[in-house]
């Protein structure tokens, strides 16, 4: 086995997902596992907003215990990190390096000077039996990784000749013994020299060995505003909410300008209270270049908008509350700019990869489009049946996938240390790896009233609950009230870690519903647009609520595929997505799985395409089964049906 045997080519998304430095990976046909070496061949990215990236990393790093790595992550600034493009060639080293003979059980180790070569060319030096890798490791929550070698030597013969003794009780009870004198050399478990604790032996396929710490963000640039001019995440989120909810409708300002301009509404009010004519005051202030609108007024309008997980009673840790506000601002800014586009001078974004959205109604209201695509008359009916209120196709949907560290032993950040990667150039700064590319996407706004009605039908909301109760039902005829409900009742920080349970039941229900719906859509999109499913990706914004399906490949053949799907194949796509939720080849076993009706035969997709590692999926939430009312059942009324029913009642009254 040579060095070249332990190199592999992987797509950037796959590399960031599963092949980060220090992970233990299966080498497939070689029949061994190996540890990923540092990514040395990456190149640095300069033209990226490091301020926003480091702020996000700081928020996430604070959630870790960091007993041994605290100095690395404390108060990082943009000058403390370097951002590198992911390199597709992955180098590994053989690990663990302990092998045993299947016949005589003698232990062999790779030579230190030739760590990539199998000991004795894969044959036992005693009996010529076949050597098998002892595929177990020990991990500590500080990040340390150890092989399963004996914890101590034989007192008489050191490591001259020792064997593995297997038992029926499992690997935890296996022992090493000296073949010469029979002395015990211990088992495969180890103790961390720093923390005095370790988990193991774990099989090398265990998910507890490695947790990539990463995030995906729509990399929409701020326009004409420097990052340091932006307000805190909380204020930024509330300014965005003021526009999103219709409290603010700035005519002559962009959202960025609204967030960074204080405004003089209080001065205007004081002058009017003193008896001045409002229009005269307004002309005077505007003539002096003093805007009335600004951040202050937007913050006043949204004092009541507080995400559920930004409240102290939900999260005692300030870092978690800050992350809740960060998630809210990201979801709002992404949704608003990918559906409304830039609200300022278009000349300013000509040189930028900026989202260029087109609403479906633009096409379906065009007589020429309807003539060229007669099937478009069925689009609105299919959207209604799928409980989708609006749809957009977005050119230049800018995605940024960021990998900034790893942890081990426990999926919960608060129980682990966050470990940095080795710098590709040997510097002391923290390397961060990123993959970015403008993509093509379809954005689907899910009907809010339908989700509320579905929650009521499944007893997660109570129509008799007091108005101030979280379980009360918002007015489904009031779109602003519905938007506010989702912003203030979905705990987005619960969705950071796919390996941890979602503890909040409302968040779990809404996210699992939307995630299952997203998988049905993504799994059937490839058939209609000609792209392989594993070249597509998803983003779920539960607090909007919206689903984004995007092409994760930038190859020339993919350009226009999502637009073609959107404009010409929308009706079979949505219909087939609903059909996928109905049946599975493995039913009834799949449909009766207590962990959720989802498997490789139905709505599981490639883990590189899924934002949540194929967790939190259940197609029963869509089609219904037994005591579960399905989201796509006719009993769940959406806002379009409510409007239609209201119009019918009005017509009858007339």
Termini separation: 85 Å
Structural class: alpha+beta
Number of helices: 19
The quaternary state of the protein chains shown equals single chain
| Residue share in helix | 25-40%
The total beta strand count reads 19
Shape: globular
- Biggest sheet character: 7 strands, mixed
Mean pLDDT figure: 88
**Gyration radius, in Å:** 29 Å
Task: Give the uncertain stretches in residue-range form.
Answer: 646-654
* Beta-strand content: 15-25%
Give a structural overview.
By secondary structure, the chain is α+β, with helices and mostly antiparallel strands. Among the domains are: 221-341, no CATH class; 355-402 and 436-646, no CATH class. Helix content is 30%, strand content 17%. The strands form five sheets. Strands 4, 14, 15, 16, 17, 18 and 19 form a seven-stranded mixed β-sheet that branches. It has a four-stranded antiparallel β-sheet with strand order 1-5-3-2, with no helix packed on it. The longest helix has 25 residues, at 505-529. The chain is globular and about 100 Å long. 42% of the residues are buried. The model is unreliable at 646-654 (pLDDT under 50).
Summarize the structure.
The chain is α+β, with helices and mostly antiparallel strands.
Helix/strand layout:
Blueprint: E1 7-9, H1 12-18, E2 24-26, E3 33-36, H2 50-61, H3 70-73, E4 81-85, E5 89-94, E6 98-101, E7 107-109, E8 131-133, E9 136-139, E10 145-146, E11 162-165, E12 175-178, E13 199-203, E14 211-218, H4 233-244, H5 255-260, H6 265-273, H7 278-287, H8 295-301, H9 318-340, E15 356-359, H10 360-364, H11 367-372, H12 379-385, E16 388-407, E17 430-446, H13 448-457, H14 479-489, H15 505-529, E18 536-541, E19 546-551, H16 561-568, H17 570-582, H18 620-623, H19 639-653
Helix pairs in contact: 4-8, 4-9, 15-17
